[in-house]
Amino acid sequence: MDNANQQTNGMAISSLVLGILGVVLNLIPVIPYLLGILAIIFGAAGNKIQNGKGMAVAGIVLGSITLAMKVFFWIFIILLGGINY
């Protein structure tokens, strides 16, 4: 295969970038929800194109991790609020 003929999968790249940003910026209140959801959506769209499937899957995984980290954060806060000192 000639690398000059291959096109870059923009959806897969944006999914990966948004997934990384979502994980890194997880303690910011609202932004990680948006980043995680967009990473999953763009990863699913980018996964349909043959070139860049690995980046698309990584973006989906990182977007899912971002959302899971936010859910566990809120569970931790709720449980911590129920502790009586």
E-strand count: 0
**Head-to-tail CA distance between termini:** 66 Å
Q: Please trace the helix and strand order, writing H or E for each element.
A: HHH
Structural class based on helices, strands and sheet pairing: mainly alpha
**Count of folded domains:** 1
Radius of gyration: 16 Å
Low-pLDDT parts are: none
Kindly state the percentage of residues in helix. over 70%
Shape summary: elongated
Largest sheet descriptor: none
User: How big a fraction of the residues is strand?
Assistant: under 5%
Number of helices: 3
What does the average pLDDT come to? 89
Task: Describe the structure in your own words.
It comes from Sporosarcina koreensis. Keywords: Membrane, Transmembrane, Transmembrane helix. Residues 11-71 form the DUF4190 domain. By secondary structure, the chain is mainly α. The protein has one domain (10-81). The protein is built from three helices and no strands. The chain has helices at residues 10-24, 31-46, 53-81. Helix 1 (10-24) runs antiparallel to helix 2 (31-46), helix 1 packs parallel to helix 3 (53-81) and helix 2 (31-46) runs antiparallel to helix 3. The radius of gyration is 16 Å and the shape is elongated.
